[in-house]
Write a structure and sequence with these properties.
heterodimer, A: 116 residues, mainly beta, four-stranded antiparallel β-sheet, 12 strands, 0% helix, globular, B: 114 residues, seven-stranded mixed β-sheet
């Protein structure tokens, strides 16, 4: 069965400093992995996804994530935080609920705060 | 532009009432999903559909039902609302069942059951 663990429920950074949001996954096969972002009172937006091509994936708004199979990790990074990055971030693995494909399994989320 | 919409955006209801949340997508996607979002749980799958007349139970399906009479709509019904169903509900759709397929999410419906 697939699962995903976000190691921090809350991360706080200062504007202009790097961002690191950590995610570990568990999967019985080579998974597809996603990061979604949710701004306050908004829906979810895809940031980036890994689909077994390049292990370093670039997404929107300067975010990127690196797939490390040996560490079963898919951490999200950004070199310099902006105030507009304050949001909740979800690490997601492609699921197989009840033997059916196409489902997503979500981590519990990491809330990113950005201080001026 | 294609989109996915949900209505209502906010709903207050009483325990025991039947409630239906609407989801409409213009992507012409075969696959549609309902999730609920609760603090400390992320999003959890309620029901999903792979096409017209197809519905399947997800992880937290008790107390919910769906029907799929056309490609565009997947309404979610709470048969007899309970306080434990107070949550934010998200509808999503995708084009294929490939693992790498992106799901597109609606804006959410915030439901309060009193």
């Amino acid at each position: 069965a697939q699962s995903v663990t976000q190691l921090d429920s809350h991360v706080s950074v200062s504007e202009g400093t790097p961002v690191l949001l950590r995610c570990n996954y568990s999967s019985s096969y080579s998974p597809s992995l996603f990061w979604y972002v949710q701004h306050p009172n908004k829906g979810l937006q895809l940031l980036l996804k890994y689909t077994s091509a390049a292990t370093l994936v670039k997404g929107i708004n300067g975010f990127e994530a690196e797939f490390k199979k040996s560490e079963t990790s898919f951490h999200l990074t950004k070199p310099s935080a902006h105030m507009s990055d304050a949001a909740e971030y979800f690490c997601v693995v492609s699921g197989n609920y009840g033997g059916s494909q196409g489902n997503l399994i979500f981590g519990k989320g990491t809330k990113l705060s950005v201080k001026p | 532009d294609a989109e996915i919409t949900q209505s209502p955006r906010h709903k207050i209801t009483e325990t025991g009432r039947q409630v239906t949340l609407a989801c409409h997508q213009t992507w012409n996607h075969n696959n549609m999903f309902w999730y609920r979002q609760d603090l400390g749980h992320g999003l959890r799958l309620i029901h999903y559909s792979y096409g017209v007349q197809d519905t399947n139970k997800g992880e937290v399906s008790d107390g919910y039902s769906v029907s799929r009479s056309n490609t565009e709509d997947l309404p979610l019904t709470l048969e007899s609302a309970a306080s434990s169903q107070t949550s934010v509900y998200f509808c999503a759709s995708s084009e294929s069942l490939a693992d790498q397929e992106t799901q597109y999410f609606g804006p959410g419906t915030r439901l309060l059951v009193l």
